[in-house]
C-alpha cells in the first residue's frame, strides 16, 4: 500500500492539510480527537503510512500495528482513562460502519460504555 493517498482524509490530516486536534504525534503515528465523539474521550490513532484497514495493516506492517496500539495506550494514560478503563476498536468493512479507509484505532472512554456492538 502506498505511503500516502492524496484523496484519503486521514492521510491529509497526517500531512497537516486538514486541521484536527492532535493529542499525540510520533514518527510513525498520529492521534487526534474524533470530530463526532461517542464518549467523553474519543480519540483516533492512525499510522502515518496509509493502510486501508486494520487487517491490511496487520498483514503489511505488523510492527506498525503494535505502534498504533502502543500509542493508543499512551493516549488513554494522558486522557486519564487508563485506570477507569477504555475501549480500543477497529471498525473493518461495511457491517462495522467503517467510513474512512485508512486504518484507525478508536480510543473510547471516560464513562461506562454501552454494549460493544453499539459503539463506533
Ligand atoms: P469509522 O466509522 O471509519 O471507524 O470511523 C471514522 C471516524 O472518523 C468517525 O468516528 C468520524 O466521526 C471520524 N471523522 C470523520 N471525519 C473526520 C474529520 O474530518 N476529522 C476528525 N477528527 N474525525 C473525523
Ligand atoms: Zn490514508
Automatic annotation (TrEMBL):
Residues 9-118 form the HIT domain. A motif (Histidine triad motif) lies at residues 102-106. CDD domains: PKCI_related (cd01276). SUPFAM superfamilies: HIT-like (SSF54197). It comes from the Bacteria. Pfam families: HIT. InterPro entries: Histidine_triad_HIT (IPR001310), HIT-like (IPR011146), HIT-like_sf (IPR036265). This is Histidine triad (HIT) family protein. It comes from Streptoalloteichus tenebrarius (strain ATCC 17920 / DSM 40477 / JCM 4838 / CBS 697.72 / NBRC 16177 / NCIMB 11028 / NRRL B-12390 / A12253. 1 / ISP 5477) (Streptomyces tenebrarius).
Amino acid at each position: 500500500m502506498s505511503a500516502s493517498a492524496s484523496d484519503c482524509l486521514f492521510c491529509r490530516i497526517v500531512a497537516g492539510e486538514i486541521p484536527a486536534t492532535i493529542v499525540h504525534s510520533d514518527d510513525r503515528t498520529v492521534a487526534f480527537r474524533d470530530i463526532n465523539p461517542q464518549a467523553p474521550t474519543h480519540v483516533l490513532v492512525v499510522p502515518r503510512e496509509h493502510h486501508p484497514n486494520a487487517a491490511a495493516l496487520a498483514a503489511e506492517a505488523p510492527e506498525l500495528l503494535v505502534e498504533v496500539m502502543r500509542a493508543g495506550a499512551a493516549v488513554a494514560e494522558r486522557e486519564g482513562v487508563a485506570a477507569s478503563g477504555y475501549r480500543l476498536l477497529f471498525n473493518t468493512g461495511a457491517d462495522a460502519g467503517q467510513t474512512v479507509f485508512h486504518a484507525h484505532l478508536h480510543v473510547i472512554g471516560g464513562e461506562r460504555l454501552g454494549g460493544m456492538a453499539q459503539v463506533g
